Amino acid sequence: MLNVADIHAEYVTDINGVKKSVILPLTDFYTLLEDLEDLAAVAERKDEPTVTHEQVIEELKQHGLL
User: Fold this and answer.
1) What is the largest CA-CA distance in the chain?
2) Contact (CB, 8 A) for 29 and 17
3) How far is CA 33 from CA 16, 23, 40, 47, in A?
4) Alpha-carbon 19 to chain mean position
5) In 3-state terms, what secondary structure has residue 15?
6) Which residues constitute the domain of residue 40?
7) What are the helix and strand counts (H, E) for the chain?
8) How far apart are CA 34 and CA 29, in angstroms?
9) Partners of 22 in the beta sheet?
10) Could you give the number of structural domains in the chain?
C-alpha cells in the first residue's frame, strides 16, 4: 500500500494558488488504483461469512493443493 507521505505529487493551481489538480508519477498512480481495487473487493465481500484458518487448510488438502 502506498503511504500518502511517499507520493511525489505536483499540483496545478489557479491564479489564486488554490490547488485544482494533481500530477502523479505513473507508478504512484497505478499503486493507488490497485489499492482502490483491493478496497472495493473488501467492501463487496464484507457480508460474506468467514471461515477459520483450519477450514481453509482442510479444504486445500481435500483438493490436493497442500
Assistant:
1) 65
2) no
3) 30, 15, 10, 23
4) 25
5) coil
6) 4-62
7) 2, 2
8) 9
9) 11
10) 1
